[in-house]
Design a protein that fits this description.
Elements: E1 2-3, E2 9-10, H1 35-48, H2 69-84, H3 90-103, E3 108-110, H4 118-130, E4 136-138, H5 145-158, E5 164-166, H6 174-184, E6 192-194, H7 208-218, E7 225-227, H8 234-241, E8 251-253, H9 263-271, E9 277-279, H10 286-297, E10 306-308, H11 318-324, E11 332-334, H12 346-354, E12 360-362, H13 374-379, E13 388-390, H14 398-410, E14 416-418, H15 425-438, E15 444-446, H16 454-466, E16 472-474, H17 482-621
Parallel strand pairs: 3-4, 4-5, 5-6, 6-7, 7-8, 8-9, 9-10, 10-11, 11-12, 12-13, 13-14, 14-15, 15-16
Antiparallel strand pairs: 1-2
Helix pairs in contact: 2-3, 2-4, 4-5, 5-6, 6-7, 7-8, 9-10, 10-11, 11-12, 14-15, 15-16, 16-17
Amino acid sequence: MFKRSNGSEKSFPNRKSSTWLISPKASLFSLSQSRQNITKKAVSQNNKRRKKVTSRNVRTASESVTYSWSSLITNLYKARCKDLSIPVVGHQLEKFANFCETGFKARRFRLPDLGLAENSAEFIGEILKFSSFFCEMDLSKNNLKDLGVKHLVDGIARNKSLVYLDLSSNNISSEGSEYLFKVLSRQNSVISLKFSSLEGLNRNRINSCAAKKLCELFKNPIFLMCEIEGVNLGDEGLTYLTPGLESNLMALNLAKNNISRSIGRFSKALVSSNLVQLNLAHNNIGNCGCKELSSAISEENLKIEVLDLSYNNITDSRSFFLALCKNSSIKNLSLEGNLLKSGLSHTLYQFLCANKFLSTLNLGSAELEDDGVEIFGKGLPKNRGLTCLILRNNYIGHSGVFYFSEGLKKNKTLKTLDLSNNPLRSKGGLTLANVLKAQRTLEKINLKDTYLRDDVGQVLSELTLYRTNLKSINLEMNPIDIKYTSSIQRNLSKNKNKAKRYLAPRLKNRIQKLKQEAGNILKITSKIELKKKEKLNITQRVEQTRQRLSEVQEDQLHKNNLIKEELQTLKSKSSSLDELLSSTQKKLQKETTNCTQVMNYWKSQLSKVKSEILQLEKTSKM
């Protein structure tokens, strides 16, 4: 397959015992170099690295194999011819080599739409096993199929440099996609995968089993971006994907996947996810799905900045715009293709008044009429965040432009306005031109196919002479005389050149201001440092005081405990003395009672004796 340095053929070597000649140096991309010079350079590099060959190498250093750039291209071309069942032609090889030279620049492997299949995939997989040069691979719009993807993924599994992988439209079935996701979930370099179906050709497909493996891939900590547009995922597949949102995934494209009923659970998972970009265009979430998303959008933890809900059969956006009033993360929102003719209510006015963060709003192809844009006339003067407003492909006439222009006059943030494919006609165009005379922030205006005529062209031609803020006006498909369109383009070109001339001085002034601000910031930071030191000293003092206070508190507590113990002992002694006193009193009372009884007894005896004595005395006298 590849050539040895001595001319014999050999298969791929162990990575440690070989040297690839694919390097960032531009000289190695030139096909004009002779194979002999390349081989000599590779041999010299191998000779320098022979000391690094270990016992684990399959081949010894003397058997080190080198590969030339031209042989790589030749073998890849042969594999492609085998895939397409066509003969190898010399001049076609040269064209293929030139194409590869362009596609392989800046560490990129770009071979889209070349009819590559299993044989080419096997060869590319072998390249990836032993080359750490390429960091981006684009093989979209080929026909790799399941077998080709398996060959390719076997090489990717051993590669440590590939970061971006595009396998869109390769006729890969659910079996092949399941194998791809399973390997990538354990791979440690790929952070971005495109697996979409483009233009309905060679469609890739994902079933429930493949969706489970894709969920595991989402949980890979290094995996950040995934595009699976048009792979027929469906509600069931989205249900299996939803748990994987609680990961490091930042960008997800789910457009054209027949999603409708399962959007509720998905919306709840968005709140705790790290998604920054989400594309749900060309599904069928409807008004119910829109309400589910509204509840997620109103949460503070939501991190999404770019949200695309184009062509989702949404007709009522009231809850959505009301939720946007509470949201501070979304910067770019597309509702194109949703029939919002009756859905732009007072909540849109509330949103326009409250908005500070949304910069781009796309309401194209929404069947808006004159009365539908009246809200913009009222809300734009109070809006402080919107810089790009897209209203293309609607039914806005001169009356709508009149309503719209009233708000546009007072707006100070809008820079890009798209009113293409609207029946403005000359009256609406003149109204808009009069607004532009006073409006100083608009830079780009798209008025393609708006039925404007020469009178508008003449006014715009004069206007662009002195209104230097205007950089681009698209007047394609309008019946305006070429002299006016040419004059407008010349004036716009002068405005651009003038802006470029003034750009350097403005940037210098800006740099000077930034330097001054940086100096002020340094002063402020020094003051902050001093305050921090003061705070540190104060905190140390406070800590010392706290320690002393704690010591005093402990001392006092100890003393209190001693006093409590003494009081307890005294109480116990007092209680014992009380008991003794009470017992003594009882004894004394008993003795007193006994003594009283004895005294009473003796008194009675004494009285008896006295009576007897008296009686005896009486008897003696007698």
